[in-house]
Design a protein that fits this description.
Blueprint: E1 3-11, E2 16-27, E3 30-37, H1 40-45, H2 48-56, E4 61-65, H3 69-82, E5 87-91, H4 94-103, E6 108-112, H5 120-130, E7 135-140, H6 145-153, E8 158-161, H7 167-175
Parallel strand pairs: 4-5, 4-6, 6-7, 7-8
Antiparallel strand pairs: 1-2, 2-3
């Protein structure tokens, strides 16, 4: 079912506020613009998808970084069950994750410790160095004290064990993100 997004944008050509209405469908966390109506000059200069995505910047954004597609898809589905309006990206390694973070920084990153190339601990350090407000939840299959200590030292805000994931804890972690950081 299409949803309407209404906003106003500055029209750089007339230096005034223009109303904008976009009819969109959000399906499986993908935004599809059906039609956009607004200032003619704005719509000519910007693609409707870009305009609709601008509204998406106000949504809670997450990035799941794990090399295993099955885990990423399963975790994403569960997140969307609990937070249907969350905007979720996926990455399979540290390099791809940093590219996506630089393009549009998420509010939180769910990060596996064991990744090909740059491991999760190194990636967490880099994220916190360049984007200190991003919350990081470290994910692992190993509930070892050394992993917890290393994750905390390298910038992880939370530590979750994949095999015994408590969704109430995940929800609390996500809800702990202040609205002003979104």
């Amino acid at each position: 079912m299409p949803k309407g997004i209404f906003s106003t944008l500055n029209d750089p050509f007339s230096n005034s506020q223009c109303p904008l209405y976009a009819s969109v469908i959000i399906s499986r966390n993908r935004l599809q613009v059906i039609r956009a109506v607004g200032c003619h000059s704005l719509l000519e200069s910007r693609k409707p998808v870009e305009i609709a995505l601008e509204k998406g910047r106000n949504m809670l954004r997450a990035l799941i970084v794990d090399e295993y597609r099955f885990f990423r898809e399963t975790f994403k589905t569960r997140l969307l069950d609990h937070f249907p309006s969350m905007f979720i990206h996926e990455a399979i390694n540290g390099k791809e994750a940093m590219e996506k973070i630089k393009r549009m920084p998420p509010h939180l990153v769910f990060l596996d410790i064991c990744l090909p190339g740059l491991n999760g601990l190194q990636l967490a350090q880099g994220i916190k160095k360049d984007f200190p407000n991003i919350r990081i939840a470290m994910l692992t299959s190993y509930d070892l004290a050394e992993y917890r200590e290393a994750a905390s030292k390298d910038g992880a805000d939370r530590f979750f064990v994949k095999d015994s994931l408590d969704w109430k804890e995940v929800e609390e972690f996500i809800q702990s993100i202040p609205k002003c950081d979104r």
